[in-house]
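Request: How about a record?
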Amino acid sequence: MLRFVVKTLINAAAIWIAAALVKGITLTAGDWQHKTLTVVLVALLFGVVNFAIKPLVKLFSLPLFILTLGLITFVINALMLWLTSWASGRLNLDFHVNGFWPALLGSVIISVVAWALHLVFKDED
């Protein structure tokens, strides 16, 4: 359970940083507490999207993984972020990604920040 909480908080921090750095990613909640709750809920939603949909997309795009030597992963991550934005809109969360290019840049930032935070906060099994 602790592992799940740590991963969710790391994803929340990464999403918050991406929203601060990328012009097309907005987190428009009101005060600091509302933004914190929103970004944690978005991180949970992002985790669900990555857990449920990403393996199927990777399976069906296996030839593209081979053809692009794995670089299609960036596109798939951007699509997962974009899908999270769409689902956030349906759930009335104040998180939006305006287009593919902000989603691509945001997914790269989220991946790098999450990787760095995972190095700092070791995953104890």
In short: The first helix runs from residue 2 to 21. The longest strand covers residues 25-27. The radius of gyration is 14 Å. The chain has a mean pLDDT of 90.
